[in-house]
Every structure is written in structure tokens, then in C-alpha cells.
TrEMBL record:
This is Uncharacterized protein. The lineage of its organism: Bacteria, Bacillati, Actinomycetota, Actinomycetes, Kitasatosporales. It comes from the Bacteria. The chain crosses the membrane at residues 240-259, 265-285, 428-445, 451-470. The keyword Membrane applies. Residues 313-324 have a biased composition (Low complexity). Keywords: Membrane, Transmembrane, Transmembrane helix. It comes from Streptomyces chisholmiae. Residues 299-324 are annotated as: Disordered.
């Protein structure tokens, strides 16, 4: 059996409609996506490397914690102190640093300059030159108004260009807002060209094809189909076939003996037998195989999801939806929820696989409904306790494409009889066949008791051997079919896993793409409104999940979304500009921008509110029910044009309540809300003068003692 080309697998990110209506939360494991996990007993060098990975992914706070821990544990090299300094200032405006940040930065920069035994005297890697430049850039960014050197911008630009290539890339990236402040330019031509070059390179890396794979759940580990099970009957098909042959011979032998000993009434008895045996045999041929396959599947299920006899349509209409009575236990409810999810995924995948020349969409769904249910039921029994149903999406795509190929070849199995029809037809067939045998046996027992007992024994033995062998044969064939299909599944699973490993972007790459999108949006906005650097006091982005988006994260990583609600706050000397986009992350495209402008004195209050099921009970309207529990940044303006930003529904991206706090901190940091709330709250209370006040406080924290020649030891990391 040939499967589809695995590279055509589109991933869960391509699904729409019922599948993404409520959003999907994908928590990746460690088999296909790198995690941000550090062994508590890891060496300081390893902790430092993990911290720099976190910095590349945009998790500045986590990066600062890890690099500081590495330094504290003895990894005190120029590279370590320099990396620690970068984690403190990374993509932050000077006003966004707290006094503690400034003091920690002072210690980290001093640590780069300190001489240590074993390190080369020359600065070949450029850490010392870069650290000195960072020090002077930070000083220049917080000087008093009117005291800045007019030529400082050009001087710093030349010094940045003279750095070693890796250090130059790091300084221009992580100190971008500081450089803009010092150079008094909103966006340099070099930075604009860099953004354009990065966008071109991004398109070459097939972002539109690769990004959806990040939102594709890891394929569940394969589980072999259960065997046919232990039985008193043989385990090989050849012996079963021999038993069926013996049963046939016994049946024929009994029939011959009965007819010989019935004498003159053999013709009427034969007619009676045929009236029972013929229709009974027809019913058994039509329904017996399907009923025995149903029973074989049920026998291999876990006991708590094993179903009894099929119910008639009338009985089903009278029953409540879902499992009833004792079946309402957590395991059974979880099984039915898992199977329902698989049915929804199957419908979407079979719809995508519809042959171009095939039936219309409704007709195709009707023609494959039985296949969809069988696949969902089979996989739910096998994988129901292995993980999320979305982890089987790859296999559903394979099954859907195989069905399309079978339709094109004319071999697609049509819908069969319902379970109730199979059960009812088998039961009636057995009753008619039994009557066809019991009537002549009874007459023979009456006329010739000894021979009647012999014939009855032969027929009972034939029935037992026949039904038992038939049932065992069906179970063995079903197990053999599933085992053969599992061989193909194993191959497809290996191909899909390798494809994901090769094509799915790492979390750091997702972070770089998101940062590039924000830089591009900021550039377009500043160009359109022709804003000058001297008029811009501060700017920051706030990110939120768009309605119905897909969510994914790696352990200890930030949440990522297939569609972002992006808000850019640009604080100028004249007021605040708020720009809104809804960004499709796969393509980096948006449907347009909506701008909103207000003055500083229009800000009435700023709230960072935790929203849950009872959010409305504290006096504020409950958030949209689709968002669930999470954080909401609410900016209340005097003109009642309130701004609200939803941060995250944490429960979709964690499998342990213990990680909710960590996830909340990551979401607040990477969404920009933590920094935005601090600045907006300060503006609401202090007004525009807060910027000058904050720069003065920063000078005290950063320069106090440093200009006097004092050198403090590095403070303990946060």
C-alpha cells in the first residue's frame, strides 16, 4: 500500500472552521522541538548558553536570570559578563530600566573590564570594546536635555561599524532603542535596509510553509494494535480453516443420517429444513461477518469503553446524549471527548482530500462518513490516553488521502449496514438456521431416539465448531489487517517525524520572525507619519492572541500565535499614537492599520486586571467569554474611548497548574504588557515630566560611584 507524499502534509495550522473556532493549544514535547529546560545541576557554562538561547527567543527576563546565575556560579568570563549585560538592556528603552537594572548593568559591564587570569590579554572576540561602547551609549542616552554632544550620533555610528561582526550585530539588535535615542533618528537608512534584507531572506526560508508546522502538535508515539487475544480456539488461520471444514463435514454427515432414518417423511422434513436453513444462511452471509468484526473490535477495547449490543434507532432517540448511567465516569467521558475531536478532525481532513472530479462536498462527506467514524473509533481506542487528539492529525491526513485514491480507483468501500442491522440480521439468521436443524432433530429423536441423539450430537458439534471457528477466524483476520496497516503507519510516522524535525522552525526562529515583523510595522508607521526622533519619547509593542488563533509553545517558552493582535504605542511630545494591526504570522501580512491618537492628560487610569469566570463580580464587565481566564491591560481615557488588550488564556498551554505562574510571567513579558503597563501607569500619574525624572534617577543609579572611579562587584542576579 503506497501512502501519500509526506511533505504534502499541511499540519494542523491549515485547518479552519470548526477546528480553530475556539483556538487550539499545542504544548510541544522534547522530541521534535527544543525546550528551554536546564538541569539544576548543570555546569555554569551550560546555564549561560541556555540563557543566550532564551535571549534569542525574546525571553529577556529568563535570559537575565540564567546568565546571572551562571556568573554567580563561577562562569566569570568576558563573554559571560557581556552576555549578562545584553540581557539587561535587550530591546529596552533607557526609561524602561529600573534602578536595580541599572545597578546590575553597572556590575556586569565592570565585570567585562576586569582582568582575570587565564583570559587572553588581547580582545580578539571584541567583548571588551563592545562593553565599553554599551557603557558609553547608556550614559549618552540618559544625559540631561541640552547637554548632549551634537556629534555623538555620528561618532557612535562609526564606533558601532568598527566592532567585530558578531558584536556589531548584537549591539545594533539589542541596543536599537538606545542607538535611536543617541543618534536622534527614528530609523536609519542602514536599519531600514537591514529590515528589507531580512524580509527577503525570510521569504527564501519558506516561512509561509514552515510556520504552520510550529502549530502542529507533535505526533503521538505509536501504539501497536492489540492482538487477537487469548482464546481456547487456535491462533493460526490454517487450523481455524481446518476446524471450519470439519464442522461442514459433520453438518453434512448429520443431514445424510437424518434423511436416511426419517423414511417416508424425509421429503417434507427436507422442505422444512430448507425453509429455515436457506433464509438463515443468506442472513448470516449478509450480516455475520460484519457482526463478528464488531464483536472482535469490542472484545479488544478496554473494559470501560466496551459497548453492549447495538440499540435500535427508536431506542437511540429515547436515550440522552452521551454515555449514560454508570458509564458516566471520567475515563469514559474522556474517551468520548477524544473520539468526538477525532471525528471533527476527520471531517476537516476528508473534506480537504476530496478528489477534484469526485462528488460535491456534501456527497463526499456522506460517502466517507462510515470511514471517518471507523478511523476515529479505532484510533480513540488505541490512543485515547496517549495525548491530544491533534497529535493524530498526520495519520488522519494519510487515511483521507488513501480514501481519495481508492475512490479514484473505484475500490472505495461503500457504506455498509448499521451495527444494529448487522446484529439484528445475525440474530434472525441464527434463529432460522437453528429452527431448520432442530425440527428434523426433534422428529428423529421421536422416531429413532438413538440415531436422533447421534445426529443431534453431530449438529451441535458442527455448530459449536463452526461458530467458534468463524468468530476466531474473523478476529485473527482483523488483527492481521491492522498489523499490516501498522507497518505502513510506522513508516509514515517516521517520515512525518523526520519532516517535522527538518522543516519545523525552532522557537528562537519564531521569536526572530516576530521581532522582524514588529520592526517592519514600526518602520512603516514612522515613515507614513514622518515622525522625527526628537519628537518620539518612547514606543513599545503590545501583543495579544487574535480571535480563533492557534496557540503553541515549548516548555518554559513564551506562547506563540498563528494570528496576532498587534498594538504599537508611540509616545511623542504631542501625545500618544496607538496603531492596531491583525497580523497573520505565517505570511507576515495584515489587513490594514487602525490609528488612535490622544493626549497624555486624556489618560484617566491604567489597570492590569486578571480576568476569570467571575470577572464581572468586581465591578468591571466580564471579558469576552471566548478569551477565558487571563490578563487584560485596560487603558481608561476621559473621552470613554477605552483601550483593552487581552494577554493569554493560560489553561490552553499548560498541562500542570504548577506552571501557570511561570507562563503568566512569560506572557506578560513577551507580550510587552509588563513594560507598557509601567510606562502608561507612570504617565497617568506623573505626566510627560516623568521621562525627565526617570532619566535623572537612572543617572544616579548607573553613574553614582562609577565616575568617581569606584568599581562595585557584580550584584547577585535576580
Amino acid at each position: 500500500m503506497n501512502g501519500p507524499t509526506i511533505a504534502q502534509n499541511s499540519g494542523i495550522g491549515a485547518l479552519t472552521g470548526d477546528i480553530t473556532g475556539g483556538g487550539i493549544g499545542v504544548l510541544h514535547g522534547d522530541q521534535y522541538v527544543n525546550q528551554y529546560v536546564v538541569d539544576p545541576a548543570a555546569a555554569p557554562e551550560e546555564i549561560f548558553r541556555e540563557g543566550m538561547r532564551c535571549l534569542a527567543a525574546g525571553m529577556r527576563g529568563r535570559a537575565q536570570e540564567l546568565t546571572g546565575r551562571a556568573v554567580q556560579r563561577g562562569h566569570q568570563t568576558r563573554e559571560a559578563y557581556y552576555g549578562w549585560a545584553l540581557t539587561i538592556v535587550s530591546r529596552r528603552s533607557p526609561e524602561n530600566l529600573t534602578d536595580e537594572d541599572w545597578q546590575t548593568l553597572r556590575g556586569a559591564l565592570d565585570g567585562v573590564a576586569a582582568a582575570r587570569p587565564g583570559e587572553p590579554a588581547t580582545d580578539q572576540a571584541g567583548y571588551l570594546a563592545a562593553a565599553r561602547l554599551v557603557d558609553e551609549l547608556m550614559r549618552a542616552a540618559i544625559v540631561e536635555d541640552g547637554t548632549a554632544d551634537p556629534a555623538a550620533g555620528a561618532t557612535f555610528a562609526r564606533r558601532v561599524a568598527a566592532l567585530a561582526v558578531p558584536r556589531r550585530a548584537e549591539v545594533t539588535d539589542h541596543l536599537r532603542y538606545v542607538l535611536q535615542r543617541v543618534e536622534e533618528s527614528t530609523l536609519s537608512a542602514a536599519e531600514s535596509a537591514e529590515i528589507d534584507a531580512a524580509l527577503v531572506a525570510e521569504r527564501r526560508r519558506d516561512r509561509a510553509e514552515r510556520a504552520p508546522l510550529f502549530f502542529t502538535p507533535d505526533p503521538l508515539p505509536l501504539r501497536e494494535p492489540p492482538p487477537a487475544g487469548d482464546s481456547v480456539w487456535p491462533d493460526d488461520q490454517a487450523t481455524v480453516n481446518w476446524l471450519l471444514g470439519v464442522a461442514g463435514l459433520l453438518l453434512v454427515l448429520g443431514l445424510v443420517l437424518a434423511l436416511v432414518n426419517l423414511g417416508s417423511i424425509q421429503v417434507p422434513v427436507l422442505v422444512v429444513m430448507l425453509l429455515g436453513l436457506l433464509p438463515g444462511a443468506v442472513l448470516l452471509v449478509q450480516n455475520g461477518e460484519g457482526e463478528l468484526r464488531r464483536r472482535a473490535r469490542q472484545a479488544r477495547r478496554p473494559g470501560w469503553v466496551r459497548e453492549g449490543r447495538p440499540v435500535s434507532p427508536a431506542e437511540q432517540a429515547r436515550q440522552p446524549a452521551g454515555p449514560a448511567g454508570p458509564a458516566r465516569i471520567p475515563e469514559v467521558l474522556a474517551f468520548h471527548a477524544f473520539r468526538s475531536r477525532l471525528l471533527a478532525l476527520s471531517a476537516a481532513r476528508f473534506a480537504r482530500a476530496r478528489p477534484p472530479a469526485g462528488p460535491d462536498p456534501a456527497g463526499w462527506q456522506h460517502a466517507t462518513a462510515h470511514l471517518q467514524f471507523e478511523v476515529a473509533d479505532e484510533l480513540a481506542c488505541r490512543y485515547g490516553q496517549s495525548g491530544p487528539a491533534e497529535g493524530l492529525d498526520w495519520l488522519l491526513q494519510v487515511r483521507a488521502e488513501l480514501a481519495a485514491r481508492q475512490w479514484a480507483a473505484g475500490t472505495l468501500r461503500p457504506p455498509g449496514r448499521s451495527s444494529y442491522q448487522l446484529w439484528q440480521g445475525t440474530r434472525v439468521g441464527l434463529a432460522l438456521s437453528g429452527a431448520g436443524l432442530l425440527i428434523p432433530a426433534y422428529l428423529l429423536l421421536t422416531l429413532v431416539p438413538t440415531m436422533g441423539a447421534v445426529v443431534l450430537t453431530l449438529w451441535v458439534t458442527a455448530v459449536v465448531l463452526g461458530l467458534g471457528g468463524w468468530n476466531r477466524g474473523v478476529a485473527l483476520r482483523l488483527a492481521a489487517e491492522e498489523a499490516a496497516a501498522f507497518v505502513e503507519e510506522r513508516r509514515w510516522h517516521a517520515e512525518w517525524s523526520a519532516f517535522l524535525l527538518a522543516r519545523r522552525p525552532a522557537d528562537e526562529e519564531m521569536g526572530r520572525w516576530l521581532d522582524l515583523d514588529q520592526r517592519s510595522l514600526l518602520r512603516d508607521m514612522l515613515r507614513e507619519h514622518r515622525m522625527e526622533r526628537r519628537a518620539v519619547l518612547f514606543n513599545f509593542f503590545v501583543l495579544e492572541p487574535a480571535a480563533g488563533c492557534l496557540r503553541a509553545k515549548v516548555p518554559n517558552g513564551p506562547p506563540r500565535y498563528s494570528r496576532y493582535g498587534v498594538r504599537l504605542f508611540v509616545l511623542t511630545t504631542a501625545g500618544v499614537w496607538v496603531c492596531n494591526w491583525e497580523l497573520d504570522f505565517d505570511t507576515a501580512r495584515h489587513d490594514g492599520r487602525r490609528d488612535f491618537v490622544f493626549r497624555f492628560d486624556s489618560i484617566s487610569s491604567v489597570l492590569l486586571q486578571t480576568v476569570g469566570d467571575r470577572a464581572g463580580a468586581v465591578g468591571w464587565p466580564a471579558a469576552d467569554a471566548r478569551r477565558g481566564a487571563g490578563e487584560v491591560l485596560r487603558l481608561v481615557l476621559n473621552n470613554r474611548e477605552d483601550l483593552e488588550v487581552a494577554i493569554e488564556t493560560h489553561e490552553q498551554l499548560t498541562n500542570s497548574p504548577a506552571t501557570l505562574g511561570q507562563l503568566r510571567e512569560l506572557a506578560l513579558e513577551t507580550s510587552g504588557v509588563a513594560a507598557g503597563f509601567r510606562v502608561l501607569a507612570a504617565l497617568a500619574t506623573e505626566g510627560e515630566g516623568w521621562f525627565d525624572q526617570r532619566r535623572a534617577e537612572s543617572r544616579l543609579a548607573f553613574l553614582d560611584g562609577a565616575d568617581a572611579g569606584e568599581r562595585k562587584g557584580p550584584p547577585a542576579p535576580r
